[in-house]
Amino acid sequence: MKHIVDWEYKEKRPKSVKALRVKSKSMFIMGALPNFHMKRVGPVVFIVISDHIDTLTAYFFNKFGDKLGSEKYEPSPKFMKKLQKLTTVKYQLPKKERKETV
Questions:
Q1: Which of 9, 24, 61, 76 could form a disulfide with 46 if both were Cys (CB 3.0 to 4.6 A apart)?
Q2: How many Cβ atoms sit within 10 Å of the Cβ of residue 50?
Q3: Which residues pair with 36 in a beta bridge?
Q4: What is the dihedral of CA 31, 41, 78, 89, to 10 degrees?
């Protein structure tokens, strides 16, 4: 994913580019002290977010690094909060965080 983030940042010059990993979701829990716990991850495992100030472009990748598609989003505080809750940051250029206005 790092080479994709580097290429996106060099070629398109957005404000920032992040490689995110989608968190797994609990599917089944059995036992008093979860003796058995099943988790699953959907077809999208990685998301690369390119921040172009007024729009965010999201590129979706599977676990093998194959591109599944892309979409553009508005950088609203609600969307940013949901994205932060469902993913973890693996790599980011530049190293500064985006400041959110609520």
A1: 61
A2: 21
A3: 30
A4: 110
- Among the listed residues 58, 54, 61, the one whose alpha carbon sits nearest the alpha carbon of residue 72: 58
87's tokens = 């993913």
Decide: 100 and 77 in contact? Cβ < 8 Å: yes
**Residue closest to 62 by CA, chosen among 44, 86, 42:** 44
Going from N- to C-terminal start, the domains of the chain cover: 2-25+41-90
- Could you tell me if 93 and 15 are in contact, meaning their C-beta atoms sit under 8 angstroms apart? no
Tens-level pLDDT at each residue, the chain (102 residues) = 777 888 888 888 888 899 999 887 766 666 666 666 566 667 888 999 999 889 999 999 998 889 999 999 998 899 889 888 889 898 888 865 556 555
> Which tokens in the block code for residue 44?
């999208």
Asked if residues 23 and 90 have their Cβ atoms less than 8 Å apart, the reply is no
pTM: 0.74
